[in-house]
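Hello,

Following up on my earlier ticket. Below are the two sequence lines again, exactly as submitted.
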Amino acid sequence: MDREDVSGSERGVADARVEALRVRLGNDLVLSGPATEHYCRDWHGDITTGAVAVVRPRSTAEVSAAVKAIGALGLSIVPQGGNTGLVLGATPDDPAGQVVISLERMTAIRRLDVDDFSAVVEAGIVLSEFKDRVEAAGLYFPLALGAQGSCRIGGNVSTNAGGINVLRYGMTRELVLGLEVVLPDGSVFDGLSTLRKDNRGIDLKQLFIGAEGTLGIVTAVSVKLMPPAEQVATALLGLNALSDAIALYRRARRDCCDLMSAFEFMPPVAFTLAREAMPDLAMPMPGDYPAYVLMEISGSGLVDIDDLMQRFLQGVMEDGLVLDGVVAVSRAQARNLWAFREGMNEGQAKRGPHLRTDVSVPLSKLADFVQQAEAAVMSALPDCLCVSYGHVGDGNVHLNVLPPAGLTREKTDQLIYQAKGLINGVLLGFCGSISAEHGIGRLKKSDFISGLPQTQAHLLNAIKRAIDPRIIMNPGCQLNFAKDS
Amino acid sequence: MDREDVSGSERGVADARVEALRVRLGNDLVLSGPATEHYCRDWHGDITTGAVAVVRPRSTAEVSAAVKAIGALGLSIVPQGGNTGLVLGATPDDPAGQVVISLERMTAIRRLDVDDFSAVVEAGIVLSEFKDRVEAAGLYFPLALGAQGSCRIGGNVSTNAGGINVLRYGMTRELVLGLEVVLPDGSVFDGLSTLRKDNRGIDLKQLFIGAEGTLGIVTAVSVKLMPPAEQVATALLGLNALSDAIALYRRARRDCCDLMSAFEFMPPVAFTLAREAMPDLAMPMPGDYPAYVLMEISGSGLVDIDDLMQRFLQGVMEDGLVLDGVVAVSRAQARNLWAFREGMNEGQAKRGPHLRTDVSVPLSKLADFVQQAEAAVMSALPDCLCVSYGHVGDGNVHLNVLPPAGLTREKTDQLIYQAKGLINGVLLGFCGSISAEHGIGRLKKSDFISGLPQTQAHLLNAIKRAIDPRIIMNPGCQLNFAKDS
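Thanks for your patience. The regenerated structure is below:
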């Protein structure tokens, strides 16, 4: 944030620009001054920055007009949905040169076609609100993540959000049928089809999914909907080791067909952490096991899901793969099991600043990776606590490292930095990804760039220049794009 | 094919270029003269053209060398897999200016990791051979289409192939985890990861899937593998109308969870056509119904698939949605049911030249579209036969039109052209796609271009120029890219 301290003359220029935006777009669309603060703070509240203004359009046409007006002033644009991202993709980093365009006013469901199992929805609708509206129509939108009460669907698309149902339904990319995008020149890419199959050449919409707003602003999305899961069976299982969790997953893939909707692993400390955040949580099962799996099977209609879970567990317990387990017999019990998974995150937050990672490795190497990476951290930083959990079927681990309490912030940050280096070093040997689901944004940019092969860097630059030659769309995010001289 | 008649001096130039390729790449890699004919004829055998040479590299390094050598000679490249495409995407159209690069020698499976449910495979392996190798390892690769005994996996990726299992497993795009691509400058994009989740920014590989070789040559692919479907239940059902087939599909989506692997509709004439090609086929069920559905449920493990099919059919027959049906009780019977679906295509081919379409519409509008499009054709061309069949769950119809026998080729072609115009006219009103799964290639290029919105055209051109500024990669396919002057 090298321009946080804006000089007097710069402030005058900024004021003139705000005035120009107000004239061109209307007062109601433009926020400036203290009203912009909410849009310039990241989700964790760690980073507060600023922007020339925040523009809040109500329609695609207004987004287009805003993009043209901002571009004409020589300013650049930071598109923003719910601003719940974890990598600073929607947080401005140049207070004197950037305008935030917030999609929060574009919340309409343009169409919800039950017979087509599809919906067309504007980018600014909050995910949980959309899920509720779909449910009220008798269908189901499977994207599910911790921030769903605040994140917005356009942000989910721009970050290709993951979550707990990826195993069954894929990342956001696999749920998207079409997109409407305002491009850096203000023109509108209208690709809001709901066709299931459309093989007319290069699939342009794919470029914008996961681009974190660097190629354009997603203004509307058409998505697949599913039959609701009328039956859900949730089980918490105690195992001998993480490697057994991998073996159990492979077994479950076959035994439960494609009906698994979640398969999460957790360490024993998960329960301690969860109860630090939620002391009233009832321990779900007696005993203490080296590894835990939280597993969900779900389906609609004629398959007896509870019976499937029972017969599956019977088999794997007879074979010694699962030592003990508890199956929820009510929705309340199932929620209690999931509360440990969610409470574990809150418990980590309560312990103070710590390293959050979001890495992925090939599924067959998950247990080896966790073992090696934890060993590397524990050997170099024996006072730290490793908490590894995640989505087994996706090869996605959140290997977090908690420094001990009572250190200075400087010392804590140093431990976090060291731990990240150690984990990324091990990750390299496994050909893993430093960002399985959170994206790159500004936070992971330098790590991303340092690992980027030259051919990929060349392609990304060529595409950026082809679509955004003035480099006005979310500069500073993902890559450092140099303007043409 | 305006350069079919190559003049003497042009032939001399061509010979010199072939010689230059031989010197640079080695004799063994370069075919010329009559040996190239096989590579210059389309799958239907309707179109025969020519090429300066055919280059058959054995490795990614040799593909890279070939691309550099061909580019240096000022020639362009037509990448080719099994050459089984239906839209002339891999058939050269400039015999004096193009070199075919065939991937047929790159057939290795580089890695098959059962515990990771993934494989890394070279572009030239024949699909059915790959499927067999995967099956031998105890897993399953779900891509399944008529040409699987000849098509090659690189072509499947480049055309984003569909087929009969899209309903359950998606198009080829959804099966691809990573790609290796030789770019137009000969550099190698190495993205052969098998990570399930990798959200490091823009997903470059998506650009090459469905690009039909216009942005580079796919040389290797990493793909998802699945547990094999140990149980398969196949049923042929008689219904009152196509609209009932749509209603039946919606019911099946709920009742059978995500376990349906095929849901095809066929008209009564399917059986006549199939028996014209295969006279020995036993009629599967008595009676004659206005519409038929061929449905498959499959799974592994603990779900009783036969029982699920029985209970599903009991419900829908009680409700009058299905009038009669037959469930295969053996693999041989199931093959017999599928033989009608496949024989129907052969029967159409035996009746001579006809219009083959491959359109898609929103699922909820499928029956209306077929009814309106058939009515439009029958009213204008009452002597023609409409044969509509396809993949209900994908909204994908092959609405084919067979002119009467005994006409001149010219008159037949005229009827085909008229019928296409009528169908595309109706399709426009349904916001449908002229290519649900076959691609654009050269055959559908003019229809594609005429329906292309300006913003999309601008983006496609910008991306093409960014990645292939010399326009040497499959020019003439998908769009008419003008070289920079």
